[in-house]
Amino acid sequence: MSKAIVVGYLAKVSAANVNASHTEGNVVVAKKVTLPDGSTVPYISGQAIRRMLRERLADLGYTLSEPFSQVSGQEVTPPVRPWEFIDEDLFGYLDPSGGRRRTSPVRVSAAIGLFPFQGDRDLGTRSFERFGQAMAAGGNMFETELYANLFKGTILVELDRVGVFQPLETGGEKERTLSSLDRRKRIQDLLQALNLLWGGGRTARMLADLSPKFLAYTRLRVKHPIFLEALEARYEDGRYLLNLAPLVNVLERFRDYREHTIFGLDPGIFGNEEEIFNTLREYGEVLRVRDALAKAREDVEGLWSESS
Amino acid sequence: MERILLITVRAPVASFRRPLDHNYQRTLPMPPPTTLFGIAGAALGLPDWELWETGSPVRSLKVSVWMEGEGEPGRAKDMWVVLKIKQSKIAERSPYFRELLFFTHYTLIYGGDEGLLKRLEKAFKDPAYPLSLGREDELMLVEDIRWGEASEGAPRFRGTPLPRDIRQIPGIKPVLEPGGYFEPSVVETLPLAFTVDRKGVRHPENSITISFIPPGLEVEVPGVPALQWRGRSFAWLNS
Fold first, then answer.
1. DSSP state of A252
2. Fewer CB within a 10 Å sphere, N or C end of chain B?
3. Burial class (CB in 10 A: 0-12, 13-18, 19+), A236
4. Is the overall model pTM greater than 0.80, yes or no?
5. In a domain? residue B239
6. Mutate which of A1, A66, A101, A224 to disrupt the B interface (most B C-beta within 10 Å)?
7. Does residue B199 have a pLDDT over 70?
């Protein structure tokens, strides 16, 4: 029986600061991690990606829940109607007043840059003209850290929990389950949201497309985020090269647990496209990302039928 | 000799908040005992109110952990924003910082009744809930599951927590080797369990002092009963 869908993906950012941290003086710093050797790599938090996925689900026509729909004292209460709101279903909620809470059946890892941050900054000016002065008065200079990088991320979907709500999650007396049709549609639309992924801060001047340029989709009989450490790349002669050894290793290691695996590969991103195609086709179809996600949505169509 | 179950795990991001930290949330360098119990409970499919029940099988486990590799994981300071409420309205946004560990690599060690350990082995191969090191999105990958026979060993530790305040133990000395580096241990008072009230709020119980020995240098700590497996020493945190 299928228990999870895991998607490992790579998104390419050419020049942006998708997820900023605090400001240091007049510098907006990027979220980044310092490695033991002193170098740093940027990352986009799992919370930021969840937020983007929610917004893309809204683009797809869903009405989202309002996490602060009721405010009383210091307590805020979400609607707690996950059958109605896809984001409460997929991403969980906490009602501090009554202890109703839903752990997210969709786990979203941080997206971590594969290459070190080089210290690049974008210089900007906030003109005093905006504050009623003449343009000649000048303005305040500020800087924003920015990077070019490939980000790796993982999404894990607990299939047995999507569209299934326990009494302690809802305050009801019985478990409540959506129809298989609705459950499948929610997962399919989550995959579509990933296909449309963009967002974060500073999009007015540093818009970044975060839709995957490479992805590995697999439906599993166990709940393991198998692609979490499997995506690595190097940069040579002006091109990214995907290191296939760690990916092949997990595909082999989880061979007995994989039920259906699909790969998405967009052209023009990797210098070793042919090697990627020839190596991965032994483990599943290799299609363009858009087609791979369409195929993945078809795969979801088979869930909760007798054969799954 | 004692049968132990060793689970080697990796996680790109992990965090273990120190209990009293609020606006600046430091992380412990390794998962504390309650996290080790929580991971076992998640693998077995126990929600936290069942995990922490008096008769919960998980409570009878013995737990420990060590860091793999020689060095510390990467670190980041992540800014979050808390929305504050005044007069039933969201009035202000208050930033706080949370330390995160990146590219962590640990071996989680479990001991106790062999039947339960076998259940746990099966559960780690096919966990009921996805496993995480810290918050729910801090997913971890189970890299290896092994059985071992731990024997009594020399109390020489590196990259592992000890159920003691090492500042209070006389006679501690580093085992000096070329290339070794040392930094002070993190010492923290941490619970060994929780009780969960009707609202689902967890309350700590059985707090003890734990010292997290960093990985860069082996330290001899007299008076701590050590177990050893494949040349590496550890101590149960809850026995």
1. H
2. N
3. exposed
4. yes
5. no
6. A224
7. yes
Cross-chain CB nearest to B139 (options A21, A45, A154): A154
Q: CA of A185, closest CA in chain B: separation in Å?
A: 22
- Quick check: is A92 in a domain? no
User: Nearest by CB to B139, which of A31, A45, A225?
Assistant: A225
Q: What is the pLDDT of residue B88?
A: 67
Secondary structure (3-state) at A247: helix
Give the range of the structural domain holding residue A177, as residue numbers without chain letter.
4-62+105-132+147-302
Express each pLDDT in B99-125 by its tens digit: 999 999 999 999 999 999 999 999 999
A43 touching B (Cβ < 8 Å): yes
Count CB neighbours of B175 within 10 A. Answer: 13
A1 interfacial to chain B (CB closer than 8 Å) = no
Q: Is A53 on the interface with B (CB under 8 A)?
A: no
Look at residue B180 in the predicted model and tell me its pLDDT.
78
With cut-offs at 50, 70 and 90, classify the pLDDT of residue B202. Answer: confident
Residue of B115, B172, B107 lying closest to B145 (CA atoms): B107
Q: What are phi and psi of A219, to 5 degrees?
A: -100, 130
In a domain, A50, yes or no: yes
- Cα A259 vs. chain centroid, distance in angstroms? 22
Q: Is A92 on the interface with B (CB under 8 A)?
A: yes
- State the residue for tokens 């839903």: A102
Residue from the list B13, B49, B71 with its beta carbon closest to the beta carbon of A36: B71
The answer to the question of residue B14 being in a domain is: yes
- Chain B hits for A43, Cβ within 8 Å: 13, 76, 102
Which of B51, B83, B102, B181 should we substitute to test contact with A (largest number of A Cβ atoms within 10 Å)?
Answer: B102
Instruction: Quote the pLDDT of residue A98.
Output: 67
In a domain, A122, yes or no: yes
C-alpha–C-alpha distance, residues A33 and B12, integer Å: 11
Confidence at residue A129, expressed as pLDDT on a 0 to 100 scale: 79
Percent of chain B with pLDDT over 70: 98
Per residue in A59-111, pLDDT tens? 999 999 987 667 777 677 889 999 999 999 999 998 877 678 899 999 999 99
Query: Which CATH number do you get for residue B31?
Result: 3.30.70.2660
Question: How many separate domains does chain B show?
Answer: 1
The Cα-based distances of A59 to A29, A45, A189, B6 in angstroms read 29, 21, 11, 46
How many structural domains does chain A have? 1
Q: If you search the block for the tokens 């088979």, which residue do you land on?
A: A302
